[in-house]
Amino acid sequence: MDTAMCSLCKRSEAFFFRPYSGEKLCRKCFARSIENKVRATIAKYGMLEYNDRIAVAVSGGKDSLSLLHILGKIEEDYPKASIVAVSVDEGIEGYRDEALKIAAENCGKLSIEHHVISFKEIYGYTLDEIVKRLKTRGKSDLTPCAYCGVLRRKALNIITRKVNADKLATAHTLDDETQTILLNILHGDILRIAREKPKTDESHPKLVQRIKPFCEIPEKETTLYAYVKKIRFQDKPCPYSSEALRNDIRVFLNRMEQKHSGVKFTIFNSAERIRQALKESSEKEALKECLECGEPTTQEVCKACQMLHELES
Ligand code: SF4
Ligand code: ZN
Ligand code: ZN
């Protein structure tokens, strides 16, 4: 078989073909292209200041560890910036405990400080306990993921403030973003698309700004980056993973992308246009502080506190 040469360096053998650009890349050029893409995304959306303290949300999976490695590298160019890794321990036995060990190991190797916050310490329950409680009462229409998502979001906000970071970087990829866009459309929640930006607005002093430096990189490539860089990560699925609709959308989008390469970028860019249009036409939703816990929310009592009440009632 014909061995193709890398289209960038023209010296090494290509091992990856990027259908949406036509490039064939060797390992080195591929890894560099991902790092450059992250730099370009950060610049495009104005994600970072030269002196930011950046908290990277690290779950122990491939995407978040790839992001930690890349941001660690980029941060070396900014002597006034610093990086800290933050993790949430939801309390999922046999799953998150293992992932957190791997996360800690990576942070050690990269000499990046690592802080963990747990559901148990802030909410009084682990996710395992919440799921058990829901089962014995047989009353929830919500899945474990629905609880986990809301509670984790709040936990990340709290820990990011606690470690004095200015921004929270999460490893959402182009795939996560396009899935979420379609999910929101299927749920009829178009306003949510406006809120889920690559870099969120500064809407309340207690709500940490979130950035998504991988938002324009397909998941296939963030995974490949982890393999090329020999990053150790957890690849076991969560035992509660139950997002049926998201999974259907994932399969659909991957099939579409295979037939019509670039379609994920088109969806992502459409959402950007929707955001622009909505920004111009709507006023900002005012955030207030939750009457019970003091975290920022659009309601009187935040969603996390409401969920916990339901558990207790
Ligand atoms: Fe939480 Fe669901 Fe993710 Fe498991 S799959 S960590 S329950 S959001
Ligand atoms: Zn090359
Ligand atoms: Zn609250």
Say how many strands there are. 9
Cofactors, ions, other ligands: iron/sulfur cluster, zinc ion
> What is the CA-atom radius of gyration, in angstroms?
20 Å
Query: Percent range for helical residues?
Result: 40-55%
Strand order of the largest sheet: 5-4-3-6-7
Largest sheet: 5 strands, parallel
**SSE ordering:** EEHEHEHEHHHEHHEHHHEEH
End-to-end distance: 67 Å
| Total count of helical runs of at least 4 residues | 12
Shape: globular
Low-confidence stretches: none
Strand content: 5-15%
Structural class determined from secondary elements? alpha/beta
What is the average per-residue confidence, as pLDDT, rounded to a whole number? 93
